[in-house]
Amino acid sequence: MAADLGELLVPYMPTIRVPRTGDRVFKSECAFSFDSPESEGGLYVCMNTFLGFGREHVERHYRKTGQSVYMHLKRHVKEKATGAAGGGTIPRRRNGKVFLDVYSFEEEEAVLDPHVSEHLSHFGIDMLQMQKRTENGHHTDNKPRPRVSEWEVIQESGMKLKEVYGSGYTGIKNLGNSCYLSTVMQVLFSIPDFQRMYVGNLQRIFDYSPLDPTQDFATQMAKLGHGLLSGQYSKPPMKSELIEQVMKEEYKVLNWHQQKGISARMLKALVSRGHPEFSSNRQQDAHEFLLHMINLVERNSAGSENPSDVFRFLVEERVQCCQTRRVRYTQRVDYCIQLPAPFEAASNREELLAYEVKRKEAEENMRPSPEPVRARIPFTACLQAFTEPENVPDFWSSALQAKSAGVKTSRFASFPEYLVVQIKKFTFGVDWVPKKLDVAIDVPDFLDLNRLRATGLQAGEEELPDLMPPIVLPEDTRDNSMSSLDSPEIDEAAVMQLAEMGFPLEACRKAVYYTGNMGPEMAFNWIIAHMEEPDFAEPLTLPSMIDPGPSAGDSPTGAALLGNSPPEESIAILTSMGFPRTHSIHALKATNNNLERALDWIFTHPEEEESDALSDMADTEPNDNAFSNANSHSDSTLSPDGDASGPRVKDGPGRYELFAFISHMGASTMSGHYVCHIKKEGRWVIYNDHKVCLSERPPKDLGYIYFYHRLSSS
Predict the structure, then answer these.
(1) Is 673 tagged catalytic?
(2) How many CB atoms lie within 10 A of CB 24?
(3) Residue from 58, 77, 76, 78 nearest 68 by CA
């Protein structure tokens, strides 16, 4: 038989490769599905590309590449004997030693750790304190446990939650601090636009995928979407299996074995590639990852329907000079509203003040702290704080040609089809350590924001002149401008303080420079606001002196900027929003490649859009269908003024209904755990990694990110 097989392989020997150092061999998961060697059909590994394929996808790869030799991997899992590591976290004694079941992500199963006390002590956890439990799991001492209640409430611990199976009820395995990704993807694929874009076009995406589908964004999104929505990986246990488990007295750990979920390992590796945070194994902020995913979806949707259009809306910002009372209206694109949590508006304020007094007394007298009190804040107070006028730091009044006091208010210039609301629960302490505010907010199921619709310039209001602030150079550098630009005055002490936090040195220098050497706190806020920009860690580049040549007219200030070619990544982001390429390049050049300022520049220079659009059509290959899919739904997908060159928004009434929320447990975004609740078929469902169950008491008041969908006008 071996000789016959060798003779069959002789003609194909030139196509067979031996893996070299650095080659990835995908021997555990299919590139198009979640088939593995444990699946019924096993896994086929191409002996040339080393990509893995399930039985239903291997023929597609053969037709596309002509590769004929595949290694078939089939693994049979043997059941463990009763009494082996079977899950759970209750310590057990053997020969006087304490054993604790620990879940191993690498082995994807529970293991016994005989040295658990030493391993836990490395993280500051005292095993002796953990053993001070009664049989029902409650502590026997009186020490307060401030965060336990939050974990129990959000995960609905102690309740007999009913598991659900089938389409849309598939969990995602935790790969080690990857719950932020799981919750965001569960919510995204509960939105019809994402389902239609990736799952509805599944066959087309797979057929036109590149030779390496593991590196294709659309393919991996379609793969995950199909895995979550097909129900293929979420099947209820057979009755015979239930009887067998009961007979083995292992019914208590049945949940652990039945709901396995799918692994988003390939997608995580792809979307986090090159990102300093998401590519690590540390816990991350789910809100930041959501914006990161929206950015990736937009980049990869050029020329086709963009499902992230459902989140995009326009914000109208009204800035008023307090001295002259003149105003300026601008618009910017946003995808999420961030609501503050004003403690002063808490409904249990007296209780909070009493707790603070007791806490200080206990701290002074070296006594245990009292049980913490959670602030209960009305949602209307959060919304009111969001809409109140705020002071504009370093406001330069074009009417006075000098700095003055200014106030800014924000309103909705358009309402998105899906509204994302983030509660600003995370802040920084005096020691710059991130911390979480312990608040509960009575978030409503229905929301009406029509009163926050922007109105534009009102009768009797006078606009501020459209003038840019002058470039001010120090007296001792007027004769040698270029040397001053090469060596700008920067507070190096503030730079080093920021660099010690782990930020890139060049980013710290830019942060201190662009905030006018006003201290590390202002520079830190600048870093947080600009971390996602492509040139975040690039060296500081400053505008040169005014050039009297013809190119000076290209910039609104008449200054020729250094670096005439903006990054293609920044151009792609602006063009994916619907702006003409030429206009996007002008905006980036005029703002030193700053994306946020470039968007403001586009909105304040609409007079150039028509000519830019014409030149853009003349300079590029004709493509009449570039935005046909995105604009085929209705005219509401255009900008509010009907200009097709503006950002695509799906405007409509501002009445919404809550359909999902993501909750965080833990002290900061750098630790803890995320779960999400999604309303499906009229009932709330909790997604806790691979476990999917019907929710008994959805903790809407403890959420971090809330998702609303627009109600029909009827």
Answers:
(1) yes
(2) 12
(3) 58
Q: Residue 700: its pLDDT value, please? A: 95
Would you say the pTM of this structure is higher than 0.85?
A: no
pLDDT at 494 over 50: yes
**Rounded-to-integer distance, Cα 136 and Cα 33, Å:** 42
Q: Is the pLDDT of residue 485 over 70?
A: no
The answer to whether the beta carbons of residues 504 and 536 sit under 8 Å apart is yes
CA distances from 419 to 229, 386, 446, 652 (A): 23, 15, 12, 12
Sheet holding 52-53, edge to edge: 52-53, 43-46, 70-73
Alpha carbons 95 and 107: distance in angstroms, whole number:
26
Residue 610 has pLDDT above 90, yes or no: no
Cβ-based burial of 483 (10 A; exposed 0-12, middle 13-18, buried ≥19): exposed
What average pLDDT does the segment 128-157 reach?
A: 57
What is the spatial distance between Cα 226 and Cα 220, in angstroms, rounded to a whole number? 10
Query: Widest CA span of the chain, in angstroms?
Result: 94
H or E segment and range at residue 316: strand 313-321
**β-pair partners for 410:** 317
Q: Are 664 and 459 in contact (CB under 8 A)?
A: no
Cβ-in-10-Å burial (0-12, 13-18, 19+) of 98 comes to middle
Consecutive H or E run containing 381: helix 379-387
pLDDT higher for 339 or 646?
339
603 and 577 Cβ atoms separated by less than 8 Å: no
333, 598 contact by CB (below 8 A): no
Query: Is residue 463 within 8 Å of residue 485, measured between CB atoms?
Result: no
The answer, yes or no, to whether residue 299 has pLDDT greater than 60, is: yes
70 pLDDT band, cuts 50/70/90, is very high
| Contact predicate 335/599, CB 8 Å | no
Of 57, 664, 673, 709, catalytic? 673
Q: Which residues contact 446 (CB under 8 A, 6 or more apart)?
A: 655, 656, 657, 658, 711
Q: Which residue has the tokens 């097709």?
A: 644
Picking from 30, 673, 603, 537, the residue whose alpha carbon sits closest to that of residue 333 is 603
In this predicted structure, the answer to whether residue 547 has a pLDDT above a threshold of 90 is: no
pLDDT reported for residue 209: 92
Q: Of 46, 179, 321, 508, which residue is the catalytic one?
A: 179
Residue with tokens 């030799």: 69
SS (H, E, C) 208-252: CCCCCHHHCHHHHHHHHHHHHHCCCCCCCCCHHHHHHHHHCCCHH
Pick the range with the lowest mean pLDDT from 364-373, 426-435, 666-675.
426-435
| 382/399 Cα distance (integer angstroms) | 34
Cβ neighbours, 10 Å, residue 521: 13
Q: Which residues contact 396 (CB under 8 A, 6 or more apart)?
A: 402, 403, 404, 469
Most confident of 244-258, 535-549, 568-582: 568-582
Number of helices (H), then strands (E), in the chain: 23, 24
| Beta-strand relationship, 673-680 and 390-391 | unpaired
Beta strands 434-436 and 426-428, pairing class: antiparallel
Q: Which helix (H) or strand (E) is 53 found in, with range? A: strand 52-53
3-state secondary structure of 463: strand
Q: What is the mean pLDDT of the chain?
A: 79
Q: Which of 505, 530, 502 is nearest to 276 (CA)?
A: 502
Taking alpha carbons only, the member of 207, 312, 302 closest to residue 625 is 302
Which run of H or E residues covers position 568? helix 568-576
